[in-house]
Amino acid sequence: MDPLRLRISIDARRSGTDDAEHVVELVRRATERGAAAPAAVVVRAERIELVELVPVVRAGIPVPAFLAGLTRSKGERDAEALAVGLAGRFLLRRRSDPQRSGVPVALVFLEWPDNAWWHWRALLDADATIREDTITLTRAVDGDPLPESLGRWWSLGRRMGYQVQYGPLRRPEPLRVSEIVH
C-alpha cells in the first residue's frame, strides 16, 4: 500500500490525570474553537497522539481495521500503544437506518488491550456547542454494554495481524550538483 500522509497532534500525558478525561478536555477545547475533527487516539507511555481520520476514510481504509493496526503500532523509541480509540465530532447514526441523517455528537471512546473500554458522549447544538445536559459516560468496568460499532480493535488487531507504521514526514534530500563538468 502507498504511504498515507496524516496529521498527528501530540499532547504530553499528565501524571495524576486520567487519560480518558484528558482526551475529553482536548475534545471540549477543540469543540469550543469550532474544530474537533474526527481522530484516532493512541495513548503511549509519555504522550497522547491524535491521528486525523478523514484521509484514512478517503483512502478507502476501513476505520476499524486502521484502529486495529494502531493497537500494534510503535511510536518513538518503540513506545507501544497503551490504549486506542476515537475522539472528536461525529454523526451518530443507527446501524439499522444508515441512510438517515445523523445527530452531531462529541465523543471519546478508549479501549485497552484487555478490551476494557470507556465512552463519553454529548450531543451538539446547532452551533456545535456541547449540550451539558446530554453527556453520558459508560464504562466496561460498570458492566455497561459495549456501544454499537465501537471497540474490539485490540482483538481484531491480534486476530488479523494488522499493524500501522508511521513516523515523521521525511523530506527527500536535495539533489547535489556536481562541480565537475563533463
Tell me what you see in this structure:
- Helices cover 20% and strands 25% of the residues.
- The chain has 182 residues and is of the alpha+beta class.
- It has one domain (8-160).
- A 7-stranded antiparallel sheet has the order 1-3-2-4-5-6-7.
- The longest helix is centred in the first third of the chain and has 14 residues, at 19-32.
- It starts with 7 loop residues before the first strand and ends in a 22-residue tail after the last helix.
- 27% of the residues are buried.
Summarize the structure.
20% of the residues lie in helices and 25% in strands. It has 182 residues and is α+β, with helices and mostly antiparallel strands.
What is the topology, as strand order, of the major beta sheet? 1-3-2-4-5-6-7
* β-strand number: 7
Characterize the biggest β-sheet. Answer: 7 strands, antiparallel
Radius of gyration: 19 Å
Extract low-pLDDT stretches.
none
Q: Strand content of the residues, in percent?
A: 25-35%
Q: How far do the termini sit from each other?
A: 40 Å
